[in-house]
Amino acid sequence: MKIYDASNQILGRIATRIAKDLLRGENVVVINCEKAVISGDPKVIEKHYLKRRQRGDPHHGPFFPRTPQGIVKRAMRGMLPFYKPKGREAFRRLRVYVGIPDELKNKEFIRIEEADVNRLRCKYIVVGDLSLALGYEKRW
């Protein structure tokens, strides 16, 4: 099992690495998902995600998440061939947590250097702040 720490990591960069691990058959856990970063102008990103949430019918979908773990999990799902059996199986091997669960506190975490937020030269928004902008009530 691989445990990735998403704090101060660019979401798309870690999502590609995690998708490759999932397709290889490994179990993957992502912790601190509320501290992951999406690059770009925060106002534009908020508007994009709000438009996604308001699209469609609330009873029939399409359904887009507003929780931090839901946003990160949906990004990971976008990197997988979800509508094929191998993509569904890979997606079932993914676990995403806000913060660090008690059973994982003494384990070693993987951080990806290419995905570090210090490499960005543009504005960005943290997934936790994005979820608050979408109407999620802070519980962490």
Enter the CATH topology name. Ribosomal Protein L13p, Chain: A
User: What is the count of β-strands?
Assistant: 5
Mean of the pLDDT scores? 93
How many helices? The count is 5
Global structural class: alpha/beta
Question: What global shape is seen?
Answer: globular
Order of helices and strands: EHEEHHHEEH
Beta-strand content estimate: 5-15%
| Share of helix, binned | 25-40%
Number of domains: 1
CATH structural architecture: Alpha-Beta Complex
| Strand order of the biggest β-sheet | 1-2-4
Major sheet size, sense and barrel closure: 3 strands, parallel
Q: Identify low-pLDDT runs.
A: none
The span between the termini is 25 Å
What is the highest CATH level, the class? Answer: Alpha Beta
Radius of gyration: 15 Å
**The named CATH superfamily:** Ribosomal protein L13
Please render the helix and strand layout as text.
Blueprint: E1 2-5, H1 11-23, E2 28-31, E3 37-39, H2 42-54, H3 68-78, H4 85-92, E4 94-96, E5 124-126, H5 127-133
What do you see in this structure?
The protein is α/β, with parallel strands linked by helices. The chain has one domain: Ribosomal protein L13 (Ribosomal Protein L13p, Chain: A), CATH 3.90.1180.10. The protein is 37% helix and 12% strand. The chain has five helices and five strands. Strands 1-2-4 form a three-stranded parallel sheet. It has a two-stranded antiparallel sheet with strand order 3-5. Helix 1 links the parallel strand 1 and strand 2. Helix 1 crosses helix 3. The model has no long low-confidence stretch (mean pLDDT 93).
